[in-house]
Amino acid sequence: MEELIGNKIENYQILSILGKGGMGIVYKARDEKLDRFVAIKFLAFEMVNNPKLAERFKREAKNHAQLLHSNIVTVYGFIEYKNLLGIVMEFVEGESIEKVLFRNMRLHIYDVVYIMRQVLLGIGYAHSKGFIHRDIKPSNIIVNSEGIVKIMDFGISKSIFEQDMTLTGSKIGTVFYMSPEQIKGNNINYLSDIYSVGCTMFEMLTGQPPFYSDTEYDVMDGHLKKEPPKISEFVPGIPIEIEKIIAKCLQKQADQRYKSCGEIIDDFHGLDDYLKSVNSKYFLRKKKNPKLVKIKSIFILSFILVAFLGLFYFAYIQVDAFIKSRLYEKMDKIDFGLLTTKKAKQELLQLSLLKTSFIENIKSGYFFDAKRGIVVGDSSLIASTSDSCKTWQNIKVLSQSSINDIAIFKNGIYLAGNDNLFIQYSQDLQSSIYIRVDDKLNFFRLKIFNQKIYCLASGGKILISEDGIYWEKIKLNTNSGLFDIDFFDKKVGIIVSWNGEVFRTINGGNSWSRLERFTKKYLKSISVNSAGLGFIVGAGGGIFRTQDFGETWIEIKTDSYEGLQAVKILSEERVVGVGNKGTIAYSKDSGFNWEFRNSGKIFNLNRIVTSHDNTTGYIFGNKGTIIQFKLRN
Q1: What backbone phi and psi angles, to 5 degrees, belong to 197?
Q2: Is residue 314 within 8 Å of residue 275, measured between CB atoms?
Q3: Could you give the C-alpha distances from 561 to 19, 161, 168, 355, 564, in angstroms and in order?
Q4: pTM of whole model > 0.70?
Q5: Domain limits, the chain
Q6: Which CATH code is given to the segment(s) 2-90?
Q7: CATH assignment of 94-277?
Q8: Angle at CA 493, nearest 5°, toward 492 and 496?
Q9: The two domains 2-90 and 94-277 share their CATH topology (first three levels equal)
Q10: Which of 126, 175, 295, 540 has the largest count of CB atoms under 10 Å?
């Protein structure tokens, strides 16, 4: 649907893409009749001819249009034009809480209370009109340039007075914020939104949802059976009142939660004394930025309106620090020190956290040496450096899809990502061509081995080429996504997949056989060497070891339950793994015993690579994280 940019539909001139979702694309447009900017959400072409989905989309517009509130994005109209269906909405110039969290990790309690008061007013209004949002989360909350909070995306909202179009047993919502009754597929009411509000507040304060894992099963199991962690474990000194508010929102039994959004707002008043008495030395005050004076002033005025006048001084200082993110930068330096100890540095890695300006999640990268490299990631991030990561040059791609991997082949640079994104660049990154694949696939991993390039994809498919021009397609005996591949030698290789399946080849990849299943955990990464040693890592801290070229695998028991995203053999003795919540695992005895370090930061580490000249290693993670380590000879 990108081809809509530049077109005029009715009285709307389509200008740019604001975002993509499961049912379509949201564009920024100009209403030429009223001379104002609007946002238009178009249903995806392939869904327009589906009567059920088209009717659901129209219902979304109808439901949303009935909600007129200062804290809810306003619907202006509906478009039925040729083969297009679109909802015309208020254009909000601002930033979502999700993006703020990407940049700042977590918010101070001042900001959480200020934002959530407005969210609760908007959600409470929707409830009073008989509507349930069903997908409250940070990405659906935006603060505009005037400091007003707006709730977005009533795309799956439901009137409690109409018959639900979804079948009983279906799950609608985002799993990190879903109530237990949503997960079970039961009928829900406004108390489900209360639970999602609790999840959202928890993440705003701590930087992560209450139940955070790399598998949906573990997340859903947490919502259904486990107690959420205490916020004080993440933020020491947090007042008990906010703990109690969130704990009540997150009750497993719906009838034990708050009965309305207004009750939560009432309980916020119990925090007023605390907010006024916070020690101002906790905040770091910096020189004012003239460009931000207007925004800060409006935030201050908002605090005055919702709290006592005496809160003014403290709110001013906090917002000043919050907007400039200086406190966040200091926390980075403190928390990162927890990744290593003196002993760890001596025995394995000397880690350095590199500063970047990226807010995107970095998925992979390639470094020619310690100075020159390329990284790729979410939102089609491609950036190159030639000065040891001090500065970066962004490269534009006509796509918003995530780029999952990069590989340097003999005839160019290859990028693989979601939504059929498969691109070959010239070595100087000045020109590119899209590699066309018949199927609609997500591409997860690229591997150069034995003069061939392998590309692992969803649906159990592999693309293989010797020249980058002609591609052979292989379908394994699975429909799962294939996540990683590595070879012991020219004949023996291993592939790991989403649902715990492992495949092995003994003929150089011409055919693959599925090994007898040894785990039900999803498997994310593999690393092997020519001596027959290999490691697979995945969900729940799972580490599996082989020393017979992958014929048999033994699980290595550890005390960690954090999912691991990547593993890398650095030498005969040293192995390193990285994963969720900043986890770094390492072994100095060929993987028999492992030690775990955690940064105390709430981000995932996604990939480990070594430079082409084997002098330097890099760990890539969410929110622009790049960690560098030196390889010993």
Answers
A1: -60, -40
A2: yes
A3: 34, 44, 33, 29, 9
A4: no
A5: 2-90, 94-277
A6: 3.30.200.20
A7: 1.10.510.10
A8: 155
A9: no
A10: 126
